[in-house]
Amino acid sequence: MYTESVRALAGARISVFTGTTNASMALDLAAPSTASALEDRLALRCRSGDPTAFDELVERYHARLFRFAYRMLRSRAEAEDAVQEAFVRAYRALGAY
């Protein structure tokens, strides 16, 4: 399993586990408004210092972002770097959310 430490790069420590499937991804397709409310709650938990909340956001979106980046970049290494950078930027921007 591919593992990176996004918070370490962003100035805090969390483990990011990727390549997993998550039942909550189906929730996005079935009920977008419910998924949006969940994302808002996760973002608020992240801002309040809950270390597991960012892990949940990464689990929800890593596979989707990786597929998109891979289609654009045609390189696994480049796609992994792009996705990691996207999550680092998202983590750093949580205060503005």
Task: Tell me what the structure shows.
With 97 residues, the protein is mainly alpha-helical. It has helices spanning 6-10, 24-30, 32-47, 51-73, 76-92, and strands at residues 3-4, 16-17. 70% of the residues lie in helices and 4% in strands. The longest helix has 23 residues, at 51-73. The chain starts with a strand and ends in a 5-residue tail after the last helix. Residues 1-5 and 11-30 have low confidence and may be disordered.
Quaternary status of these chains?
Answer: single chain
Specify the structural class: mainly alpha
- Strand line-up of the largest beta sheet: 1-2
Secondary-structure element string: EHEHHHH
Structural Rg: 13 Å
Q: Quickly count the helices.
A: 5
Uncertain parts: 1-5, 11-30
Task: Report the biggest beta sheet as strand number plus sense, adding barrel if it closes.
Answer: 2 strands, antiparallel
Distance between the termini: 30 Å
What general outline do the C-alpha atoms trace? Answer: elongated
Helix content: over 70%
What fraction of the residues are assigned to beta strands by DSSP? under 5%
Number of strands: 2
Mean pLDDT: 76
Features:
5 helices; two-stranded antiparallel ribbon; mainly alpha; disordered N terminus; 2 strands; 97 residues; single chain
List the helices and strands and how they pair.
Blueprint: E1 3-4, H1 6-10, E2 16-17, H2 24-30, H3 32-47, H4 51-73, H5 76-92
Antiparallel strand pairs: 1-2
Helix pairs in contact: 2-3, 3-4, 4-5
